[in-house]
Amino acid sequence: MSLHWFSPPVSVKTDQPGAIYNCNNVEGAAAELLKWSKRGPHWNRAVRVCMACLADQATAQEVRRVFRLAAKEEGVLREGH
Fold first, then answer.
1. Which residues make Cβ contacts (< 8 Å) with residue 65, sequence separation at least 6?
2. Engineered SS bond to 67: which of 29, 30, 49, 79, CB 3.0-4.6 Å?
3. Alpha helix (H) ranges present in 1-81?
4. What is the number of alpha carbons within 13 Å of residue 81 lying toward its C-beta?
5. Alpha-carbon gap, residue 24 to 17, rounded angstroms
6. What pLDDT, on a 0 to 100 scale, did the predictor assign at position 1?
7. Do 77 and 12 meet the contact criterion of CB atoms below 8 Å apart?
């Protein structure tokens, strides 16, 4: 299975103190989304767009955009990284 890459990466805080994850593909974004707890409207949209991308119905760049919004909603987005 090939990964669906996007650029630039979205930097998010992880559950490990001080650790940052630079997410640059749809599969990684989907896995990260499943670890989050708030699961608000942006999270729901990000999950749907990830699934659409894996079914060739959305682009990796669309996933990047909604994943970034979901990370901000979750409070884990690292701005400027």
1. none
2. 29
3. 26-33, 41-54, 60-74
4. 15
5. 21
6. 57
7. yes
